[in-house]
Specification:
By secondary structure, the protein is an alpha/beta fold. It is about 35% helix and about 20% strand. A seven-stranded mixed β-sheet has the order 11-10-12-13-15-14-19, with helices on both faces. Helix 7 runs parallel beside helix 9 (about 195-215), helix 10 (about 240-255) packs across helix 11 and helix 10 runs parallel beside helix 15. The longest helix is centred in the first third of the chain and has 20 residues, at about 195-215. The two termini are about 50 Å apart. The mean pLDDT is about 95.
């Protein structure tokens, strides 16, 4: 019978299975297909921290969610419209997230008594009338058909079954009209040195497509049209890759070599992996033996005239705190990237969180303020990295860049910028003496490393080896201007206040905040930072569609806060601050502006949902 084609404006699909079933690869390939097709999209990978959790158990379930649409979208979706479950554990772990009427495609091959027991089922859920009545369930032997399709390539049954994720990808690609050429090309390149593996995966993928085309199991296909985009060259990019690209761009626009001193840590390691590929662009990467050595090397590179960068997550920031304080007192440019994850301690290494804001603000001994920048979307990580580098170089200070696991691993289309359009960053190295010794008749004849630019309060940056600019710096307090060790109480008070004032001067270079308040008469303002941007904006859409007025402002700069923020807050009766923590920005806003900020605080290791934000706004109204 002829198949019906239904047009949709958006779809959320979640692929779920064992951590060894290739769900991240499957989701990534479906994402790439959708990007090539021209949809707007956002993704949410979700995987266990264990290297190999027990097979068939709920702790071992790995998933990848992709939201694609014919219009601009802001999140990876509150709940999946389609669940592809490769075993009983994947079904059980994700079933509660599905809305009534959702589509479930289940690989029946592993629904054995043993696997059902490991997943915590007393009986076969595929025979449950309630499940069958609440959802559109398609029970398909994906593994069995895959093994049969690839038997000509002489693989063992175990190896043949590994291609089942490509069968599932082919089926979903047919169901939603995705282009197949990108995946075929990818498989041919990835497994080019193993022809039998290559051919088996390509065959499984095309067999899945053909199964959808020929079976009567699926009576409806779906179309999601491309989304309108501004002209330009686009690529799908994750937050970590965007951040790495932004650091390279900052090095290019400043004319500085880029040095990364890093120790691998989830979820920041991809930045190290990516930057290690760009030696040809003057990038040096150093995988240190620990977190302290990583930042020490980066700080040494900054002293020598490089753009010093170190990448980590919250536990690594704790270990780096003394060296960050050293960078504050040395007043050298340094970018410290913190890709936040669930804590405390080891916490939830593969889950997202926003709980390092107060650590970034105050997590050092003494008065050691530094600027803090936070990106809002995966692609915005590029611009945030550029901004962090600009501030670090211009104001001679370490800068904390707060990304998180949701941004790091999530992806979206990114319009590739023209390098010539990116802002130039002038390192303005010191090249000659800046101080006149008493009795000198020839003008400036000595170099003082702590004389300051009157506009930025930045000290001069002298590359070691520059003739006549020999100087000494260290961790002990410096005398104002001359930089010699000083224990004078008045000097210490002056230097502490000067370093704090320098950080506050960063606000002079910030553009006015953009407040999204179309009518200008909203009484509720939603303030966010970091990756809550998407859920907040999507929640506000829902509230406005219901006929209510609400305003939004999102902060990129968390220290110093923008100069106009206080005035903006004072214009609204109620202020809502959604965060993936227990109220850290709310605390800062209440203390700084004496505003009765109300928090929406959820700490699940998962992003906020737009529905949660919309409900919180309506409660305030």
């Amino acid at each position: 019978m002829p198949q019906q084609v239904t047009r949709l404006d958006r779809v959320v699909i979640r692929f779920a299975g064992d951590s060894g079933d290739g769900m991240q690869l499957t989701g990534d390939r479906f994402t790439q297909e959708s990007a090539v097709f021209g949809n707007d999209l956002m993704t949410l990978p979700n995987f266990p921290a264990e290297i190999r959790a027990p097979q068939g158990t709920i702790p071992g379930v790995s998933s990848f969610q992709v939201h694609f649409a014919d219009h601009q979208i802001l999140t990876a979706g509150d709940a999946p419209d389609v669940l592809v479950a490769m075993n009983p554990a994947a079904l059980k772990a994700n079933l509660a997230d599905l809305p009534k009427g959702a589509t479930i495609i289940v690989d029946t091959h592993d629904f054995t008594a043993r696997n059902l027991q490991k997943a915590g089922y007393d009986g076969d859920p595929l025979e449950d009338e309630q499940l069958l009545s609440n959802y559109q369930v398609h029970a398909v032997d994906l593994t069995g058909m895959t093994v049969e399709a690839v038997k000509e390539f002489g693989l063992s049954r175990k190896d043949a079954a590994r291609a089942k994720n490509m069968f599932a990808l082919g089926l979903l690609s047919w169901l939603y009209g995705r282009p197949t050429e990108p995946t075929v090309t990818f498989l041919e390149r990835r497994f080019g040195r193993a022809p039998h593996i290559r051919d088996a995966n390509v065959t499984a993928f095309t067999t899945g497509w053909n199964f959808g085309e020929t079976t009567e199991t699926f009576a409806v296909r779906y179309e999601v049209a491309p989304a309108p985009q501004a002209p330009g060259t686009y690529r799908n990019i994750t937050g970590n890759l965007a951040l790495a690209s932004g650091l390279v761009a900052a090095a290019v626009r400043s004319g500085l070599p880029l040095f990364l001193g890093s120790y691998p840590i989830t979820p920041a390691s991809d930045i190290l992996h990516e930057l290690s590929k760009h030696k040809g662009m003057g990038v040096t990467t150093f995988q240190a033996e620990d977190e302290i050595a990583g930042i020490g090397a980066a700080l040494g590179a900054a002293y020598a005239g490089s753009l010093g960068v170190t990448t980590t997550s919250g536990p690594g920031v704790a270990l780096k705190s003394e060296a960050i304080g050293l960078a504050v007192t040395l007043e050298l440019p340094l970018v410290v990237v913190d890709v936040q994850r669930g804590g405390p301690s080891t916490g939830l290494p593969t889950k997202t969180e926003q709980a390092d804001l107060l650590q970034a603000m105050f997590g050092r001994n003494g008065e050691a303020p530094l600027p803090i920048v936070a990106p809002s979307t995966p692609s915005d990580c590029f611009d945030a990295a550029l901004e962090a580098a600009r501030i670090a170089i211009t104001y001679r200070t370490p800068v904390m860049l707060l990304s998180d696991g949701y941004l790091a691993n999530g992806s979206e289309p990114w319009r590739v910028p023209d390098v010539a359009d990116l802002p130039e960053i002038d390192p303005a190295f010191a090249t000659e003496p800046n101080h006149t010794s008493p009795g000198s008749a020839n003008g400036a004849d000595t170099f003082w490393p702590y004389l300051r630019d009157q506009a930025t309060l930045a000290r001069p940056w002298a590359v070691p080896g520059t003739p006549g600019l020999e100087h000494r710096i260290g961790g002990l307090e410096k005398g104002d201007g001359h930089g010699n060790i000083s224990y004078d109480p008045a000097n210490h008070d002056l230097m502490v206040r000067t370093r704090a004032a320098k950080v506050e001067r960063v606000a002079d270079s910030l553009a006015p905040l953009v407040v999204d308040d179309p009518s200008g008469s909203a009484q509720v303002l939603v303030v966010g930072w970091g990756s809550t941007y998407g859920p907040i904006a999507a929640g506000i859409r829902l509230v406005r569609e219901a006929g209510h007025e609400v305003a939004q402002v999102h902060l990129r700069h968390l220290n110093p806060l923008p100069r106009d923020l206080g005035d903006i807050l004072s214009r609204y009766d109620r202020v809502l601050v959604p965060e993936m923590n227990l109220g850290q920005l709310s605390l800062l806003l209440r203390a700084r502006y004496l505003v009765d900020a109300v928090g929406l605080n959820v700490v699940r290791g998962l992003p906020l949902t737009s529905a949660e934000v919309a409900n919180a706004i309506e409660e305030l109204m």
